[in-house]
């Protein structure tokens, strides 16, 4: 496997102190490696939200499916994200969508965003999984007065665009809404909710296996080879032959599995801290008591929410290198930003820190469709940091495409357009460096 980040990014190092593992330990998700020769209808690379949604969808339709995961299910971003099931998935602007696809472009993306949340909600309801669900929609915090002006404009358009109204919260009303901090105001909308990502993943894993899917951990794919009647995949201890291949590796993809992936994805690091459980007195002192999931609308994104028991989970984008010493530096940076936004919590301990990689594409949209030039091969990736909802939807949709050639899920047809290639290998990370540097200079 050819990765564009150092080996540390793909090791256990970045998640040794992951808070979500307290309730759902990695050991409980571990599955045995595949061994010997195996034949299946569909093989999926990757056992995160995308891969497990695809496996569940196929297994419930009566298909034979095998999932291969390099470490354990949920090892990648699915088991270490911030826990936001929310709008998002694409970073392309409305102007870009309009120029490429006309008026139907933005409308199709918005239907997919809302449909992705509904897809996860349907799974939770249908299976009865307890995922510590909280937050009535999502709140966008303004870090500057200019950003608050743009949020007011967005709020006025929200109902027409999404079919749901948004509430403007001015700066002087933030404390009354339990949202006091160094913010210039906020806008809340009712779409989405927060959850415990590993509890959701454990539910998916159990349901997929109960439906008949076979999931193997400790089975990194070393080679993919197309043959006359399908695909042959090699792992350290096995050879898997399948009629159909689905690649669901997102930010943990490699340049050569399959080779078509080369240059079509860009991992971007996100780092997260979590506090100890805070007392009601500590919450009241800061004036932050809401369980809303929130984020600052800026390039160097901050995202945060209080868990049901009173622990603040606080994440930030911005890392482009991976090394134990660099992780320590990022941890200090995230903590410094936390202290700046919530000054009355400066003394509250943050015993948990972890990091992982989201995935960007050259099109600034998810890819979900057939791999060009290959027979019976499909992929879904590139959710731009919103993989809980959009990764789940694309996983189910790509399963439909692989099985029947179409889907009734609200997947825009242009999500199947091939993303352009970006610079090779680690040179792609230089683009992130330039973007992050400009965002820092401009407070963007």
Would you summarize the structure shown here?
The chain has helices spanning 26-29, 49-60, 94-101, 104-127, 145-162, 197-210, 280-286, 324-341, 387-404, 428-442; strands at residues 36-45, 65-68, 84-85, 138-141, 167-170, 185-189, 193-194, 214-216, 223-227, 230-235, 238-247, 266-274, 293-296, 302-306, 312-319, 352-360, 367-370, 377-381.
Number of strands: 18
The fraction of residues in strands falls at 15-25%
Largest sheet: 8 strands, mixed
Structural category is alpha/beta
Average residue pLDDT? 94
Q: How would you describe this protein?
A:
With 444 residues, the protein is of the alpha/beta class. It is built from ten helices and 18 strands. The protein has helices at residues 26-29, 49-60, 94-101, 104-127, 145-162, 197-210, 280-286, 324-341, 387-404, 428-442; strands at residues 36-45, 65-68, 84-85, 138-141, 167-170, 185-189, 193-194, 214-216, 223-227, 230-235, 238-247, 266-274, 293-296, 302-306, 312-319, 352-360, 367-370, 377-381. Strands 1, 2, 8, 9, 10, 11, 17 and 18 form an eight-stranded mixed beta sheet that branches. The chain has an eight-stranded mixed beta sheet with strand order 5-6-4-13-14-15-12-16. It has a two-stranded antiparallel ribbon with strand order 3-7. A hairpin with a 2-residue loop joins strand 9 (223-227) and strand 10. The chain starts with 25 loop residues before the first helix and ends with a helix.
